[in-house]
Amino acid sequence: KYKSTLKQEEKNLENQLKEIESSKVILSNNEISNMIDNYNIKLQNFENDVNEYNLHYQNQISSIRNIIIEEIIEIIENYASANQIDLILNSTNYLMASNNINITNNIETELNKIIFELKFDSFEKN
């Protein structure tokens, strides 16, 4: 819904810019200046709207990612406790390891058992 609204606003701005260009030979410098000022205000408002929209959904994605990471950490803690493991490293924090100590498949299996009820909050422009 908001993406199409933003697309329409962008198209309107493009049309307004074309109108300014085509009106340069007809209108006075003062009138052109007013049109340009009006365009710049609308453009700034549009850019602010796009930034708010993007920030909102970046925050939503981050929030969902954090929920999933919390579940993964809980699974890893349970696995470590059940298997008497004192240290678990990710793939970027070790020098060398055997594939038979890779617990990724175990964690993935447990993670797939969880039913996440994740949802985005809709972007509502105030």
Descriptive overview:
The protein has 126 residues and is mainly alpha-helical. Helices cover 68% and strands 0% of the residues. The protein is built from three helices and no strands. Helix 1 runs antiparallel to helix 2 and helix 2 (29-82) packs across helix 3. The longest helix has 54 residues, at 29-82. The protein starts with a helix and ends in a 13-residue tail after the last helix.
Question: What is the topological layout?
Answer:
Blueprint lengths: L1 H22 L5 H54 L21 H10 L13
Rounded mean pLDDT score: 86
Strand content: under 5%
Structural class: mainly alpha
Amount of helix:
55-70%
Q: Summarize this, please?
A:
68% of the residues lie in helices and 0% in strands. The protein contains three helices and no strands. Helix 2 packs across helix 3.
Question: Notable features of this structure?
Answer:
rod-shaped, single chain, 126 residues, mainly alpha, 0% strand
